[in-house]
Amino acid sequence: MKKEKALSALLPKGITRRDFMKTMAVISAAAGTTGLLQSCGSSSSSASADVIYRNGKIITIDPLESIAQAVAVKDGRILRVGTNSDVNTLAGPSTKVIDLQGKTVVPGFVDAHTHPMETAMMIDSWVDCRYPGTPSVVQALKNIQLWIKNRAVPKGEWVFAVGVSASQNKYIEKRLPTKAELDTAAPDNPIAFANGAHMAVVNSVAISALGITRGMTKLPHGGAVQLDENGDPTGVLTDAMSDIPSTPKLADLQRYYTKIIQETWNQHGFTSLMAITPSASLPVLQAVSKRVKPTIRYNVSVWTSSNGAEMPEDVSAFAMPKEADPQWYEFVGIKVWVDGENDARTGWMYEPYIGSFPTDPPGNRGSLVTTQSESNRFAMIGGRAGVMPMLHVAGDAAMDIGLNALDELIKSGQRKNLIRLEHYGVFQMMPSQLQRAKDMKRHGLCISVQPTWMLELVKANYENMGAPRTETGFLFRTMIDAGLEPAAGTDVTGVYLENLNPFLGIYASVTRDSDNGVFLPKEAVTATEALKMWTIWPARSLGKDSVIGSIEQGKYADMVVLSEDVLTIDPKKLKEVQVLKTIVGGNVVYEAK
Ligand SMILES: [Zn+2]
Question: Which of these CATH numbers, 3.10.310.70, 3.40.50.720, 1.20.1250.20, 1.10.10.10, describes 120-238?
Answer without folding.
Answer: 3.10.310.70
